[in-house]
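## retry 2 of 3
previous attempt timed out at serialization; input unchanged, resubmitting
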Amino acid sequence: MSVSSAQLQAPDAATLSRRPSVGSIAWVFARLGSTVFGGGTATIAILEEEIVERQHWLDRRETHLAFAVSRLTPGTNMLAFCAGVGWLMRRSVGAVVALVSVSVPCSVLAAALTAFYASWTQHALAQFALRGALASAVAIMVSSCWTLVRPLLRSPYRGRVVLLFIGAFALGIRGVAPLRVLALSAVLGALWTEPEDA
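## retry succeeded, writing output
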């Protein structure tokens, strides 16, 4: 049984509790933007979990749409993702509030930490700490990728997801530009026929 176009376009009302207030959006994005370590991918994964699983503001299809579009836009993908999900929740106001809330507090924190690090990075202990932080950041990025992919592995499309993941990874290792990999994946995803529901 195929899925109708209306089902694809409209969020499941039973899944979504309510659209959030502007204050709620600001609080969630400011809190997670300032406390999640590991870069944009880690922040996106945690934001998606909060928005979909805890708050029920959007469904996973909507956050995946925002994630896909954010990867195609120039600039910082995490900020593009935040603007996208903010727009889906409260249109222009939501996009602006999400973007400002996720970027301003952590920018102030980053400036303060940079000034602090600049004064002691020449010490041997600081060099060891930075190497440990780098290793942890890579591990967090891998974990975040798993968080984003894991729900798709339970879908009828898991074979497609695995093949596209392996193919994109192989192309990335060979030095193919990320935009080309994304464009090729989008074309393959559009041409690959969907399985019929049992």
